[in-house]
Amino acid sequence: MLSRYTNDYIEEIIKSVMNTVKMNLELRQDHSGVNMSYNFIGNYIGVDFERLLSSWEETHTSISLESFIKVLTIHELGHAADRLALLESLERTIEIFQTKKRYILSEIYNDRSLLAMLIEEHEMNITFEQTAWVNAEQVNQKYNLVHQSTFRLVKKLSLESYQKLYLEDLKLYENQLENLNEKTA
Q1: How far separated are the first and last CA of the chain, in Å rounded?
Q2: pLDDT at residue 185 tops 70
Q3: Domain count, the chain
Q4: pTM for the whole structure
């Protein structure tokens, strides 16, 4: 079923949205496993076409592929509208990235300070995601690209993925703090 949707078809939808909202960014194919992403350093949108199709299929909703792509596109453009704030976070983002590279995952999850850094990264990402969704909603209201209920559903599904990972790590962190308090009590 998915094979009938070509990369050119998907790219055409993305570019039509960018033309409509007058935010024409470079579009690059990537194989990151992330359906769409905004690269604030290079100021372009990356698309993993294969992942985009499978993430649409995974929604198990009646949302059309075209609407799904439109919502994700204006969301990524919402990040572009917040580029200055993203650039201001670059130094800390690099610090976190470099620290994470120095440790294996089990070390990060078993060290309270490293896990706290991971929580901080989650919180930064969620803040940027929420801001991008606010910007995207304003764009959608102005240009009426997709029905509001479709927009809200895609937004909900997207934010849930970030929240789920954050809450899992937060629970681990809280458990570590609780264990520490029990040992010192």
Answers
A1: 60
A2: no
A3: 1
A4: 0.93
